Amino acid sequence: MWLVGHPWGMLTLLQFGAFTSPPALLAGLLLIAVVILVGRLVMKVAWRLVIIAIIAVGTIWLLGVLGFGVL
C-alpha cells in the first residue's frame, strides 16, 4: 500500500470504513484467494518450463562436450 508511507496515508486508509463490514471483508478474502490460486497455476507452468529448459540446455551442452555439433 503506497499510502502508508505518506503522512496522510493512515488517515486515508481509515476513511475506507466500508472495508470493515463482513461482506466487504469476505469479498476481499475471496479476491485474495483467486489471486493466489491463479498465481499457483502460473507458477506450476513456469516450473515445468524451467525444468524443460534446464534439461534441453544440459543436453545440448553435454552433446557439445562429447563432440557433436548440435548448434
Helix and strand topology:
Blueprint: H1 9-15, H2 22-65
Question: Which keywords apply here?
Answer:
71 residues; mainly alpha; 2 helices
What would you note in describing this structure?
- Helices cover 72% and strands 0% of the residues.
- It has one domain (22-71).
- The protein is built from 2 helices and no strands.
- By secondary structure, the protein is an all-alpha fold.
What's the short version?
With 71 residues, the protein is mostly helical.
Biggest sheet record: none
Which ranges are low-confidence, i.e. pLDDT below 50, for 5 or more consecutive residues?
none
Quaternary state of this entry equals: single chain
Q: From the helix content, strand content and strand pairing, which structural class follows?
A: mainly alpha
Number of helices, where a helix is a run of at least 4 consecutive DSSP H or I residues: 2
